[in-house]
Amino acid sequence: MIYAEHLRKEFKKTVKDPGLKGSFKALFNPKKEIVVAADDITFHVPEGEILGFIGPNGAGKSTVIKMLTGILTPTSGECRINGKIPTNDRKKYVKEIGAVFGQRTQLWWDLPLQETYHVLKEIYEVDDYKFKKRMDFLNEVLELEKFIKSPVRTLSLGQRMRADIAASMLHSPKVLFLDEPTIGLDVVVKDNIRQAIMKINKEEKTTVVLTTHDISDIELLCDRIVMIDKGKNVYDGSLHKLRENYGQTRELVFETDNSSKLTEEQFRKGLNLKKSDLVVEREQNSFKVKFNSKKIPVGEMLGYTLSLTKVKDISVKDADIEEIIRSLYRQGGASDE
Ligand SMILES: Nc1ncnc2c1ncn2[C@@H]1O[C@H](COP(=O)(O)OP(=O)(O)OP(=O)(O)O)[C@@H](O)[C@H]1O
Ligand SMILES: [Mg+2]
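A: This is the predicted complex of the input protein with magnesium ion.
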């Protein structure tokens, strides 16, 4: 259904030296710098799959989604969705897809929601019968009733997001691109949105590409994940496999005796492990140590800890999926610049 092949996107950015002089210089003789937002991204999504498209801030996710939806033209590489190249035949293409960009609404600000849907019905050429059926369905799962007569600008974030999701699903698209559809929402609204995604995926075999920073979205919805970082592929596979491959992280928690003067640095010093293999956090007498059990076995870690200090309490547990993903981001040297 979706083929993304070696997608690359460069942006030209004007850089300016500091100060007023710099501003003038930039105005008359702008210095350009190239930002590579997507470097080389390749992945495929079969029909009916919900793909979790994840990565740290600035990884290039939104840029890739914009290329897939035809908003941006790739600098190089190619994407093909349901046999179409998004930028070639935009008019036909937009009828086959739905898109939500959680960080900004696609709806008309001053129009009451209900009217917005009527306009979309005409744009997408949805017939009356299908429109009514669809609206009933969306009303039910997303609970739009309470605010459907209000102008979009008066909606709360959670209401607006539900309205946006409904708009993206109105014309029964074959593919849905959801870029952070649950950002900033409370658990109830998140649940509504997840239900809507799950239902149309099940009932209509809608293919979904979902970007999120909420691991629960991934655990509840996604069959597979593609993780990118700094514009490059980092992981492509099932969540299950990710757990198996990278699930060697363990968490050791212990509380030292009041007389102990153990510091984070002392603890780290004796182990000589890379930062990605050992994270030590301390809060008063409590230590939390996340470590790679492939580099240092659990037993050895316990022995080491007990040899350093007197402990009151100690326990070891497996890392959850969130922890695994966080450590993968760290290994990639992911940063938020
Ligand atoms: N129009 C643009 N002009 C210049 N640089 C851009 C533009 N759009 C994105 N970038 C840069 O490209 C990189 C990737 O941005 P993108 O928005 O795709 O990241 P993201 O993975 O969606 O991040 P987030 O999780 O924060 O939404 C960033 O460094 C960003 O600053
Ligand atoms: Mg983004």
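The mean pLDDT is 89. The two ends are 34 Å apart (CA to CA).
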